[in-house]
Amino acid sequence: MYSFKMERAESLTSALERFGDSDDAVYLAGGHTLIPAMKQRLRAPEDVIDLSGIPGLRDILVTQDGIEIGAMATHAAVAGSAHVKTHIPVLADLAGGIGDRQVRNRGTIGGSIANNDPAADYPAAVLGLDARIVTDRRTIASGDFFKAMFETALEPDEIIRAIQFPKIERAAYLKFPNPASRYAMVGVLIACISDEVRIAITGAAPSVFRAADFEVALSESFSESSISELTLPSDTMNDDIHASADYRAHLCKVLIGRGVQMLSDH
Amino acid sequence: MELHQQLTLPQSVDKVWAALNDPKMLQQCLPGCERFEAVGPDQFEMTVSTKIGPVKAKFTGKIALSDLNPPLSYVIKGEGKGGVAGFAKGSATVSLATIASEQGEATRLTYSVEASVGGKIAQLGGRLIQGAARKMAQDFFTKFVQALCEDETLVPEIETVSAP
Question: Which of A248, A263, B23, B128 could cross-link to A237 by cystine, CB 3.0-4.6 Å?
Answer without folding.
Answer: A248
